[in-house]
Amino acid sequence: MQIFQHINDDLDQVQNLIHKNLYIRNGHIKDYVKQDVSYLYNNLRPALVLICHRLFSPANRQTVALAAVLQFIFMASQVHEKLSEDGTDEDNPTDTRTDCQFPVLVGDFLYGKFFTTLCNAGIVHYLRNMAELICTINKNEVTILNNPDLAITDPLAYNDAIRGESAELLACGAYLAADLAGADNLAKDMLYQLGLNLGMAFGLWSRNDSAPQINEYVGKAEYILHQLPPGKDKESLQALLSLFAAEKPELQLMVV
């Protein structure tokens, strides 16, 4: 199923912008690092930006750019996260030619693209939000990587880390999309909370955490979702939350 089928045209614009920016002088970044190609990996964050903007105003060039920026940040964090402590790439641990410099450089390249995309779209005033977001993501990724048993030893700290590593990205995207569309503070705060709880559900779901934990955040997100106007945007978010509440992470690849 295509959860975001109703915004396929806008998502295509986002993916085209991303793809155009993934070329390095001698090739494409896929030649240097392995990237997930699943539906949710590629579309979850851009779709949330587009939907939250569409609640107040039709998507435009700046909306597409903001959606791409969120995905650049996510992709960069994923590339860096796959490097193990000894400097090897978990997807290619036998690559000794470059000591895995490619993944590090590609991750930095993607972070650079978020800045140039903001500038080109005339939304550089969001730079501070994005810079703080990147710091939050990286800090919490370090916490999770350095404490593999954190979910057992300190559940509260684990939830805080999932919030910083996964949920804040979606929350920031939802908030800034509403801001870009001219929404008032009450609406922006509501969508921030929607993105935060959706992000917590997704972060726990993607790590195969327990259903009660996931469903707690699904319920909070659904409560906020009920306050949104009816339509395809609301229906797609409800379908996404239902997926997190009912399915296992391995089914992510089936959402095509």
UniProtKB/TrEMBL annotation:
Q: Which GO terms describe its biological process?
A: isoprenoid biosynthetic process
The signal peptide annotation in the UniProt record is none
Which GO molecular function annotations are given, in alphabetical order? all-trans-octaprenyl-diphosphate synthase activity
**Keyword Transferase on entry:** yes
Enzyme Commission code(s) on record? 2.5.1.90
For this UniProt record, the keywords arranged alphabetically read as follows: Transferase
A UniProt-annotated Pfam family = polyprenyl_synt
Q: Which family does it belong to?
A: Belongs to the FPP/GGPP synthase family.
Protein's name in the database: Octaprenyl-diphosphate synthase
Q: Which organism is it from?
A: Sporotomaculum syntrophicum
Q: What is the lineage of its organism?
A: Bacteria, Bacillati, Bacillota, Clostridia, Eubacteriales
